[in-house]
Amino acid sequence: GAVVSQHPSWVICKSGTSVKIECRSLDFQATTMFWYRQFPKQSLMLMATSNEGSKATYEQGVEKDKFLINHASLTLSTLTVTSAHPEDSSFYICSASQGGGYTFGSGTRLTVV
Amino acid sequence: GENVEQHPSTLSVQEGDSAVIKCTYSDSASNYFPWYKQELGKRPQLIIDIRSNVGEKKDQRIAVTLNKTAKHFSLHITETQPEDSAVYFCAASIRLASGGSYIPTFGRGTSLIVHP
Q1: Residues linked to residue B83 through DSSP beta bridges, in sequence order
Q2: Using an 8 Å Cβ cutoff, are A46 and A60 in contact?
């Protein structure tokens, strides 16, 4: 079945620095990937839709200059959290669609100190 | 846009009992309804899905029903076991175009606790 790999699984960074999270589709091509943020005991909140070769589509309220998304190839999308602050600490998870269903990456636990 | 409501937020049952989780959606154009199970700190895993041309689907102890007219769908777990304890999410999505990707909207999740 479809496999989505996400790295890193966890990261701790200092306030003001940037962090890059990678999402790869390992055995299929994903023209569209989705990036979510999940707070403890809450649902998945869609942040943006990443489109291969074009700009990402951001959900209302998500700062595109803070959460930079690049989808340079059919198998790789990256999310960069720029100038991270403690309130950016969260669980970030990507997913990719294949054949109608979606497969999730393993998620990245970001802690900003 | 699409709005998905999920109830209950918490469900506590005894081992062997059945569990039912219900979701409603607002956009009649939605045509794909997956259910995910998420264990603590892990990725959501697809457990069952249903498309709008089907009213019911069953896979062993898990079944999903869809009522397009009422715009609601439900997850049924029979003979629950402690390992079924997790957070369950429903989702509704619309296919963008023939062969295109879906944009999913998730429910808020149901924390299922199965007591041994």
Answers
A1: none
A2: no
**Which of the residue ranges A37-46, B8-17, B26-35 would you say has the lowest mean pLDDT?**
A37-46
Query: Residue B99 pLDDT > 70, yes or no?
Result: no
Query: What confidence tens digit (pLDDT) does each residue in A61-73 have?
Result: 999 999 999 998 8
Q: Is the CB of residue B9 less than 8 Å from the CB of residue B113?
A: no
Inter-chain residue contact A43 with B103, CB threshold 8 Å: no
The minimum CA-CA distance between B43 and chain A, rounded to whole Å, is 5
**Residue B36 structure tokens:** 């995910």
Q: Respond yes or no on whether the N-terminal peptide bond of residue B116 is cis (omega within 30° of 0).
A: no
CA angle in degrees (0–180, nearest 5) for A39-B81-B24:
50
Q: Do A93 and B49 make contact, defined as CB atoms within 8 angstroms? A: no
The secondary structure of chain A in percent helix, strand, coil, rounded to multiples of 5, reads 5, 55, 40
